[in-house]
Amino acid sequence: METKVLDTKGKATSDKVTLADSIYGIEPNDHAIYLDVKQYLANQRQGTHKSKERSEIVGSTRKIKKQKGTGTARAGSIKSPIFRGGGRAFGPRPRNYRFDLNVKLKRVARRSALSLKAKENSIMVLDGLKFDTPKTKTFKSVLTALKLDSEKVLFVVGNENDNVYLSAKNIKNTKVVSADSLNTYDVLNAKKIVIAKDAVNVIEKILN
């Protein structure tokens, strides 16, 4: 699939880039996408949730009332889950939500996500995205030139550039990632994908 290359002013250059059909033109595998997104979100969870159970509650061990003759249910401890301030029954405990996926499956998922975006004509290729100094105003001008001010945008750069990351950091609905850390969730979560020209080959090397 051949696509034109835009400059930072939103104008088409004389250059064109061929996006590999093996990455941007396959039949999407929905289940692979589901698993990869599920893993990404699971890996974001800290798993530090915790509530106190009855054995961890500090309170009196005195029997609340006599066993018989009250006409109500038996009660042996103020720390019981049925009382206010008591321990929680079957409450959350710290756990690790991470799980592994086959590398081949993850590649299929990412190719599927990029193919979906390509079918929607949501992928743009940018000639270059390099800033000498961090400047949010400069990055905003690029968004305006590309007519992406009101869109949720994912910028994919070939090499890590701190100035680019810092320039986009405070802009709502805009995220910058390097080509080697591109993931299915970010691709699907964005409305438009802007790929730097030098990132195209990096993506092909990783996903082919």
Automatic annotation (TrEMBL):
Native source organism of the sequence: Brumimicrobium salinarum
Function: One of the primary rRNA binding proteins, this protein initially binds near the 5'-end of the 23S rRNA. It is important during the early stages of 50S assembly. It makes multiple contacts with different domains of the 23S rRNA in the assembled 50S subunit and ribosome.
Keyword terms: Ribonucleoprotein, Ribosomal protein, RNA-binding, rRNA-binding
Region (Disordered): 45-77
Gene3D superfamilies reported in the protein's UniProt record: 3.40.1370.10
GO biological process: translation
PANTHER family according to UniProt: 50S RIBOSOMAL PROTEIN L4 (PTHR10746), LARGE RIBOSOMAL SUBUNIT PROTEIN UL4M (PTHR10746:SF6)
Domain of life: Bacteria
A GO term, aspect molecular function: rRNA binding
Protein name: Large ribosomal subunit protein uL4
Cited NCBIfam families: rplD_bact
GO cellular component, one term: ribonucleoprotein complex
Pfam families in UniProt: Ribosomal_L4
The family this protein is said to belong to: Belongs to the universal ribosomal protein uL4 family.
Description of how the protein assembles with itself and partners: Part of the 50S ribosomal subunit.
